[in-house]
Design goal:
By secondary structure, this protein is mostly beta strands. The chain has 1 helix and 17 strands. It is 3% helix and 46% strand. A hairpin with a 2-residue loop joins strand 15 and strand 16. The longest helix is centred in the middle third of the chain and has 8 residues.
């Protein structure tokens, strides 16, 4: 009797269930899962990655304001009647009267990074709080320009949309490809915050792709399904957090309190990052007969 033995190779996929995509799209940058905004300067070694900013208070560029307002009293030698002021420039009446008297402060606006004066100083007459006129009133409440983080966040730039192949899960030993699905375009920015207006155009200047195993891949463009921006082969099964970061810069102008002519502002670099979990499975061959 002839016995035939059939050999059957069964491929078994060992791994994790596919993870859902992180929330993508436009809107407030910090809304939604996997969204991150970093404001800083470009790293010279990795020009498509935002790095820690320099020359900012506390090293936090998101809290950094492009301008600082400073109120300087009319006289530093002490309080005296000749330094009093009022809107009508009326003679001082020590017995009272209907004209409100005050103390003159000069308000300077300076570029936070360079210290250079922005526009012209402004004279402000602050009403006296002491009816006996023996001391000057406190400095005026000064406007607070929006921070770089507030401006970029209000600009509502589109976050990068992560695209993968294979999409649901990776396979060890098989190449995984990644690109950004967003159309690459400039974005017009017009932001109004606390009486300040920032206008300009933001440009996409590069991407960084991270497969969750270190050594991100920098790319000048987001790529496509036919020409992915980054490729990687996983050797070990597991769950990886993948990231796509889009780097934005632009030319902007600001107007606001006591800034009659628009002045250029450097908003540094905004890095918008999207993340998602990416399971990687292992294929094992099983010999059966």
């Amino acid at each position: 009797m002839r016995i035939s033995v059939a050999l059957l190779v069964v491929l078994t996929v060992v791994g994790l269930a596919p993870a859902a995509h992180a929330t993508q799209g436009t809107g407030a940058l910090l809304d939604g899962e996997g969204a991150e905004l970093i404001v800083g300067i470009a790293d010279a070694q990795h020009p498509t990655r935002g790095d820690a900013p320099s020359g900012t208070v506390g090293g936090d560029a998101a809290a950094y304001r492009p301008f600082v307002y400073e109120a300087v009293p009319n006289s530093s030698s002490g309080f005296s009647l000749e330094h009093l002021c009022n809107a009508a420039n009326a003679p001082f009446d020590p017995n009272g009267g209907t004209v409100p008297w005050g103390w003159r402060y000069t308000v300077y606006k300076r570029d936070r990074a360079t210290g250079a004066l922005v526009g012209e100083p402004e004279e402000i007459c602050v009403p006296l709080t002491d009816p006996t006129a023996t001391k000057p009133p406190p400095a005026p409440e000064l406007p607070q320009p929006p921070t770089l983080g507030e401006i970029w966040n209000a600009a509502a730039l589109p976050r990068p949309e992560i695209a993968m192949s294979p999409d649901a899960r990776g396979i060890t030993g098989l190449e995984t490809r990644m690109w950004a699905a967003n159309p690459e375009r400039d974005v017009a920015v017009s932001v109004n915050l606390r009486g300040f207006t920032v206008t300009g155009t933001a440009h996409l200047v590069g991407y960084s792709f991270d497969f969750g195993e270190g050594s991100p891949v920098d790319a000048p463009a987001g790529g496509s399904v036919d020409a992915p921006a980054a490729r990687h082969t996983y050797e070990t099964k597991g769950s990886y957090q993948i990231r796509v970061a889009a780097l934005w810069r632009g030319e902007f102008e600001m107007t606001g309190p006591a800034i009659t002519d628009p002045v250029p502002v450097d908003l540094r670099t905004a890095q918008l990052t999207s993340t998602r979990d990416y399971p990687v499975a292992e294929i094992r061959s099983v010999l059966t007969g």
